[in-house]
Amino acid sequence: PSHHGWDGNGAAVVPTPMPKRLDGKVAIVTGGARGIGEAIVRLFVKHGARVVIADIDDAAGEALASALGPQVSFVRCDVSVEEDVARAVEWALSRHGGRLDVYCNNAGVLGRQTRAAKSILSFDAGEFDRVLRVNALGAALGMKHAALAMAPRRAGGSIVSVASVAGVLGGLGPHAYTASKHAIVGLTKNAACELGAHGIRVNCVSPFGVATPMLINAWRQGHDDGAADADLDLDITVPSDEEVEKMEEVVRGLATLKGPTLRPRDIAEAVLFLASDESRYISGHNLVVDGGVTTSRNLIG
Ligand code: NAD
């Protein structure tokens, strides 16, 4: 098969140079300092984009920006704070000649992953507020300020948010997280209806489990009931290679598609497609990247 470097007739496939799909475009990626966001930033840069990383992690964001070169910069931005989001957009516009083509709402938090957080009987209003502020309000503010920058230029634009399979099905995450991801899918549809008049497309991507610091820290917590009071999102540490491999094995076991391992790059490829002109007639869509899981009845035993 062609993915082994051979075409269907057994002849070697000659690699052709990869076309740059975001050449000259300007993109903002929230939560771009690590995990899925980092993979999006790297792929966007590979495809010729100038990228602004908007994140609360100054150290990781600055380090990634300087490693990737002058076409990448970092701006500190808490997506749940409107002034920060407005400032990140201003920063991109002032640095790149008033241009903004792509806005990627990727920043997110999972919230507490304990048994209590997963039961409606012990639903916690404070936790709900905290998670919704980052994931749902953050995405809405991103859509607002991206659209305010894109619409007057009359050059279209693409807003891509990272939702989750927990934005499609129940039973996959704590209540606050599930509600926040369903909210992103809804916001995407609403904003697409309105912004289509300006040629701005609005879509989202819904990943299944990717072995990022977020997921691995949650998995650790899920195996430790004593961690019930830990503030998970503020205490995320870099996972070891061994933990990444173990997590990937768990996800491979759940996916209905057997063979490939789901990597941050796979999510980034879907985001790239929706960000680029190749998807120019697609708007209001939720592109699920899950190895078939949400279409299967055997999700979790
Ligand atoms: P991660 O925790 O590894 O990375 C998240 C990044 O967002 C970090 O750089 C963090 O500093 C930043 N961030 C957190 N809060 C922020 C805020 N208020 N403002 C700005 N930046 C903030 O997580 P990840 O797994 O890479 O997740 C990225 C996105 O993908 C999230 O929206 C997440 O919900 C979604 N997602 C992840 C998975 C998965 O399995 N990892 C599955 C489905 C969806």
How would you describe this structure to a colleague?
This protein starts with 25 loop residues before the first strand and ends in a 12-residue tail after the last strand. The protein has helices at residues 35-46, 58-68, 82-95, 115-118, 125-150, 175-195, 213-222, 241-254, 264-275; strands at 26-30, 50-55, 72-76, 102-105, 157-162, 200-207, 286-289. A seven-stranded parallel sheet has the order 3-2-1-4-5-6-7, sandwiched between helices. It has nine helices and seven strands. It has 301 residues and is of the alpha/beta class. The model has no long low-confidence stretch (mean pLDDT 92). Helix 1 packs across helix 9, helix 3 runs parallel beside helix 5 (125-150) and helix 5 (125-150) runs parallel beside helix 6 (175-195). The structure holds nicotinamide-adenine-dinucleotide (NAD).
